[in-house]
Amino acid sequence: MNPFSSSTRLRDMIRSIRACKTAAEERGVVRKECADIRASINESDPHDRHRNLAKLMFIHMLGYPTHFGQMECLKLIASPGFPEKRIGYLGLMLLLDERQEVLMLVTNSLKQDLNHTNQYVVGLALCALGNICSAEMARDLAPEVERLIQFRDPNIRKKAALCSTRIVRKVPDLAENFINAASSLLKEKHHGVLITGVQLCYELCTINDEALEFFRKKCTEGLIKTLRDITNSAYQPEYDVAGITDPFLHIRLLKVLRVLGHGDANASDLMTDILAQVATKTESNKNAGNAILYECVETIMAIEDTSSLRVLAINILGRFLSNRDNNIRYVALNMLMKAIAFDDQAVQRHRVTILECVKDPDASIRKRALELVSLLVNENNVKQLTKELIDYLEISDEDFKEDLSAKICSIVEKFSPEKIWYIDQMLKVLSEAGKFVKDDVWHALIVVISNASELHGYTVRALYKAVLTYSEQETLVRVAIWCIGEYGDLLVNNVGMLGIEDPITVTECDAVDVVEDAITRHNSDMTTKAMALVALLKLSSRFPSISERIKDVILKQKGSLLLEMQQRAIEFNSIVERHKNIRSSLVERMPVLDEATFNVRRAGSLPASVSTMAKPSVSIPNGVSAAPLVDLLDLGSDDILAAPSSSSGADFLQDLLSVDLGSSSAQSGATTPAPKAGTDLLLDILSIGTPSPAQNSTSAIDLLSTADMNNNSSTALDTLSSSAPPHIATTASAGGMFDLLDGLSPSPSKEATNGPAYPPIVAYESSSLKIDFTFSKPTGNPQTTNVEATFINLSPNTFTDFVFQAAVPKFLQLHLDPASSNTLPASGGNITQNLRVANSQHGKKSLVMRMRIGYKVNGKDVLEEGQINNFPPGL
Amino acid sequence: MIRFILLQNRQGKTRLAKYYVPLEESEKHKVEYEVHRLVVNRDAKFTNFVEFRTHKVIYRRYAGLFFSVCVDITDNELAYLECIHLFVEILDHFFSNVCELDFVFNFHKVYLILDEFILAGELQETSKRAIIERMSELEKLE
């Protein structure tokens, strides 16, 4: 021993490390020790290697890097003595793993040690190999290991068996080599060897089909006999656990029988007896017995059908469910989920117990039980189950509420027998756990509500009552606001009372109170506030008597720090003040949203999140693409839509929206719905020739505030809806807000007025206003007509805020250029405006147009309408 | 198959860590930390099984030590509970009323016992007596 070495003993080092009070101190001690060890390694002193490696292992366990010790392991393994080899292999297993290349260097030593005369050394080598060998090492040393399976000493045999398990896992191709060796192991008496042999057998069967066939034919009966023996065996103190002899062996055997019986009717047949015996005779008051029963049930479920066995298995699970031990119940719930696939009825019998488990204090049991319950739901028990679940929702923990509410919602959606029940349940869920409910769930609810037209009154009244009590549930507030906005008149006038309702009196003020409260409450988020503003707008139209108050509320938001709110407030205020004429049609009742398409779309919805709406994307998040607009149009309009060109529509709609929303591309982005439908929408709007423009009820704007009230998309669409003047191409007007619909057809404006001249007409004449049209046709395009409209003021008053709007039937396309001005001076003052009309039925039908003019005289709004039928033919 | 076995005390110090699957050092530390966090906060009334990443951990607390075994999802949890208990019994017998300090000062012996009990992630021997005998044979060779 080197007299200069000051190596401490292992114990002393451990003590000194433990005595350190701070991490820094500990680091210091460790550093010193490492330095000593490194010095010792450099001197290649064989005497201290053993101790050095032990110290190194301890330091490694503390978490410090110890790479410099790896070669020491190798040297120790190569030493002749047993203690050195032992610590060397231990170090090897601790400091290295199969991915390190250094491991390859050990292969030779391992090979030698596997052939060593000292069986303890052989054991060491097998152990190391079994724990960390890599694929190459496995391949190299497989023949040795295979030979050792037949070794005389049982300790070696069992180690060799498990080592082979690892080898075949790493290199499945080698499986065939081990089949014979494994089958010989199955006849062993020694438990250790037997259990490892069975494990090897199991491994081979799962990896290799040939092996499976072999074992199935040759060994099934032997294995069954072994299981029978062990089940019936007398008390063996060595292997006894809680009165059962070697439960581990039981379990291992059951596992391998499972693999052998699965998919094979013969083998399954042979097993039924022993499985029945195990299932009935095993004591289940201790964990060991339950472990065996559990394995037995799994095996019964996996092998080919014998219904009596299955019933037995499910009964066992039922017993487990009422066990007080949480572990057992957990395990039973797990298994029952698999059992449902076979025998739904049997599991239904335990429904009550399972429901109890949903209320268990243990979180993992609750989760499992909830999943199981959702598998058990069918049309018959859905009402009962939902009631129980909702009752529990009220008292459950916060962290569980989310899962529970999500599950309840999905159950209710899938199985609800009637709409009113659906709405009731959803209301309860929203009241209890609204903040956990996801967006698509309450969107779906709104779709359903809007479809259940006979329940509108009931729904809005129920929501009103609910929101008074549960105003902190965000989602509930949102749904309530939307409904109050839509159906406020039903609420106040108690329309559509169902027999089960108690009458309530809600005044218009009360309704507005609720909405106002949602805006002013500090913890409402932006979506809610924005929706509230829209609702207020709707209410201002439905409740004209308190329009002033509503206006005040909206005005207050003008100074809001949220851009969205400010914008809406200003725009809505403008509508309320200056554009009362179109307000009512703006906020008419929403058309019924098509449930089927909504569901389909939702099923294949884009998983876009709200936050991605910042970038201008063409598709609306949540999969509600422009198609709903098309559907809505289908419902609303009588005409069949003709598909127009999309690109023009896209530009135009983009234009529309970007003009509307000013610079906030953030919001506008989301609202460029697939342009195709946009064009459909507006084209259709414009081509509704027969109904008067004011009545473009169903379709038009409300369309655009679709059910998908996803945050920004709804806000933007709502904005669009509010600011789009109904259904008619219009010109730039005061405030620039209605500066939309600049053009429908992309036809390039042609200045030239060639072609045959057509006589000008007086399109409209009243006591205060006259409109003249002059016509021209651009060259080469007989279908298009340029019209110059001149508006002449016949009255002694000046007209301000002059707006000309026109609508044409479907076969025509109309484009308006901005007017020369929108103030019409008194007595003969005029404004000119150019229009372009394209006639797709040129030659067959002549032009016809409906128009509406709005202007202000002395602060009063005036509206004039008319139809122009006197276009010259041939245009 | 067992993926790893951990022995940790309440403060989070790992007294024994045996991995049967290859993991980087940093990964190992992360795993040990996560398992400890999972296991130390659980109430005694709860089940002894927790889901951990794509596997499950079966744990049991003995005095101040947590014995955690991470197994595949398809394994029989109750059997591994028995396994843990058998291991503790063996240790108890070997060290005569084992305590945490035994694990600290005799860690290499604990590893040796473990290697006689479990190999390649599977149970090797189910007889307490056999393992103790083997250990004494090996001690004689030292």
UniProtKB/TrEMBL annotation, chain A:
Gene3D superfamilies: 2.60.40.1230, Leucine-rich Repeat Variant. Residues 756-872 form the GAE domain. One of its GO terms (cellular component) is AP-1 adaptor complex. SMART domains: Alpha_adaptinC2. It is a peripheral membrane protein. It is found in: Cytoplasmic vesicle, Clathrin-coated vesicle membrane; Golgi apparatus. Keywords: Cytoplasmic vesicle, Golgi apparatus, Membrane, Protein transport, Transport. Its main location: membrane. GO terms for biological process: intracellular protein transport; vesicle-mediated transport. Subunit of clathrin-associated adaptor protein complex 1 that plays a role in protein sorting at the trans-Golgi network and early endosomes (TGN/EE). The AP complexes mediate both the recruitment of clathrin to membranes and the recognition of sorting signals within the cytosolic tails of transmembrane cargo molecules. Belongs to the adaptor complexes large subunit family. This is AP-1 complex subunit gamma. It comes from Brassica carinata.
TrEMBL record, chain B:
This is AP complex subunit sigma. InterPro entries: AP_complex_ssu (IPR016635), AP_mu_sigma_su (IPR022775), APS2 (IPR027156), Longin-like_dom_sf (IPR011012). Keywords: Cell membrane, Coated pit, Endocytosis, Membrane, Protein transport, Transport. GO terms for cellular component: AP-2 adaptor complex. It is a peripheral membrane protein. It comes from Brassica carinata. It holds the Pfam family Clat_adaptor_s. It comes from the Eukaryota. GO terms for molecular function: clathrin adaptor activity.
